[in-house]
Design goal:
The protein is 30% helix and 26% strand. It has 11 helices and 17 strands. The strands form 3 sheets. Strands 9, 10, 11, 12, 13, 14, 15, 16 and 17 form a 9-stranded antiparallel beta sheet that branches. The protein is globular and about 60 Å long.
């Protein structure tokens, strides 16, 4: 029997981390990478070099594929058309992916479903911004509808003048803009689910994520002290979104916790940074689960394997050869995942997972291991919320 071939558009670290689970499942992973040294190029079973807009490269990566899936949301319509012409399922679909690609489409859909959005509106003039600030100020969040990630395409504003350059750029053909109320949240949460085309769905434990400079810095699974009813509500919300938008694969719903309620922040229809903990802290990690979902295989168990798992991202620092850190991290159960990227300050180059029975100790070990990988020297860890 011929092994299924999963084609992946995008050659970054998310595609790279699909390789191990694909091998274990007996699946051939074929990846379209932008450059020969892209993170996924060193690990995928088959590699095609090219851009998603290159018809010949897309044809090569689709040739004989069982299914095609995505490492990111910015997939040209021609790729979906090429897959359809060959009878290859493209998952998640173009219609579903539009809600992760375009924040205006996403907010509109959440409103239509009666789900908890912040106050928001599309804006195309300084007057629109002034009106929104007058109603929902003194500060608000200005976003580009498309193209933003890791804090890019997001700006906190307190006056319409601070939006003028983006308004001008939008008028000149740049991304459309939306403005949102600045939610007074107590913390950020993430609810992840996996769903198959037949509608089978599983929900992971809800996690707490900490952002620094717009980039996910740490994730704690499960979210400490989260009311079980609110956790169930967050999981149910994610299940509803996956079903209503017909998402196939992994879906991450980023949330704000506001008092005793939750508000939707953003959606991602792929493996997500907030789910990296599951690679070592759940029976079935998100990367295996995504493959299972898009191939229509039985979904795996999502139970945690320890009381706590902490994920700490490693951003580029002093160390240039990260693999040398593997021998320096003390035995503390730290699982180190490197992305095969050139090190640059502030760039995501890997992450560390640590599981344990006690949260403060688990946090400390994870942070110390990440410090060693980044800079070669540990620093004292702290407890949840920065407390010693």
């Amino acid at each position: 029997m011929t092994a299924p071939i999963v084609a992946v558009i995008g050659g970054g670290q998310l595609a790279r981390m699909l390789t191990g689970p694909a091998t274990e499942l007996g699946v051939t992973l074929r990846v379209l990478v932008e450059t020969p040294d892209a993170p996924a190029a060193g690990g995928a079973h088959q590699v095609v070099v090219g851009l998603p807009g290159d018809a010949d490269a897309v044809a090569s990566v689709l040739d004989g594929a069982t299914v095609v899936t995505w490492e990111h949301e910015h997939i040209p319509a021609a790729v979906f058309a090429a897959a359809a012409a060959r009878g290859i399922p493209a998952l998640p679909s173009q219609a579903a992916l539009a809600h992760a690609r375009d924040k205006i489409v996403m907010r509109s859909a959440m409103d239509a479903l009666g789900l908890p959005n912040p106050e928001w509106r599309e804006v195309d003039s300084v007057a629109d911004v002034e009106a929104f600030l007058a109603e929902h100020g003194p500060a608000a969040i200005l976003k580009t509808a498309m193209g933003g990630y890791d804090g890019k395409g997001v700006r906190v504003i307190r006056s319409a003048a601070e939006a003028a350059d983006w308004i001008d750029a939008a008028a000149a053909g740049g991304p459309r803009l939306l403005i949102e109320e600045k939610v007074a949240f107590t913390r950020e949460l993430s609810a992840q689910v996996a769903r198959t085309a037949s509608g089978d769905v599983v929900a992971y434990p809800v996690v707490e994520s900490t952002q620094r400079d717009g980039i996910c810095a740490e994730v704690i699974a499960p979210a400490p002290g989260l009311d079980p009813l609110l956790a169930a509500a967050a999981q149910g919300l994610a299940v509803t979104i996956a079903a209503e938008l017909d998402v196939v694969g992994m879906l991450a719903v980023e949330l704000f916790e506001v008092g005793g309620s939750i508000v939707i922040n953003e959606l991602a229809m792929r493996p997500h940074n907030s789910g990296h903990w599951s690679m070592d802290g759940a029976v079935t990690g998100q990367f295996e689960q995504h493959l299972r979902a898009v191939l229509g295989l039985p979904l795996g168990d999502v139970a945690s394997t320890a009381a706590w798992t902490v994920m700490v991202n490693v951003l580029g620092g002093e160390r240039r050869e990260l693999a040398t850190a593997l021998a320096e991290v003390p035995d503390g159960g730290a699982k180190i995942h490197l992305y095969g990227k050139d090190v640059r300050p502030g760039r995501k180059v890997g992450h560390v997972n640590v599981s344990g029975a006690e949260l403060t100790k688990t946090l400390t070990r994870a942070r110390q291991a990440a410090d060693i990988v980044r800079d070669g020297a540990p620093v004292a860890g702290t407890g949840p919320g920065g407390e010693a």
